[in-house]
Amino acid sequence: GESFQAALALALGLADVTGMFAGGISMDTIFIDEGFGSLDPAALESAINALTALSGGENGRTVGVVSHVEALKERIPHKIVVTPSHTGSSLQVI
Fold first, then answer.
1. How many CA atoms lie less than 13 Å away from 65 in the CB half-sphere?
2. Higher-pLDDT residue of 1, 90
3. Of 21, 26, 48, 75, which is the most exposed, with the fewest CB atoms less than 10 Å away?
4. Which residues are CB-neighbours of 25 under 8 A, at least 6 positions away?
5. Where are the alpha helices (DSSP H) in 1-94?
6. DSSP-assigned letter for residue 78
7. Is the confidence at residue 34, as pLDDT, over 80?
């Protein structure tokens, strides 16, 4: 769990530093691809709370998450669900 939390903190810090050195540009979107399956329940709750805080409020970021972890999927209110099939994938916006 600690390595996931450290990676998230580094990614957010890098986004802020990059924005400062690019003339004050704000990076308002972050995508996270997995890592949640390796977290114990307490660390998963902590990660969900951190991502919720990032996306909340007037100046919140858009947070995109790629995950198969049910506990996480249940807590995300807006989703794009990709369903694969032998003829191609389909999207459903919830």
1. 26
2. 90
3. 21
4. 19
5. 2-21, 41-55, 70-75
6. S
7. no
Within 8 A by CB and 6+ apart from 54, the residues are: 12, 30, 60, 61, 63
Q: For the whole model, what pTM was predicted? A: 0.69
| Residue 14 in this model has a pLDDT that exceeds 80 | yes
What is the Cα–Cα distance from 69 to 85, expressed in whole angstroms? 21
Tell me if 73 sits within 8 A of 51, measured CB to CB.
no
Q: Please, are residues 31 and 19 in contact by the beta-carbon 8 Å criterion?
A: no
Burial (Cβ within 10 Å: 0-12, 13-18, ≥19) of residue 82: exposed
Place of tokens 């957010």: 12
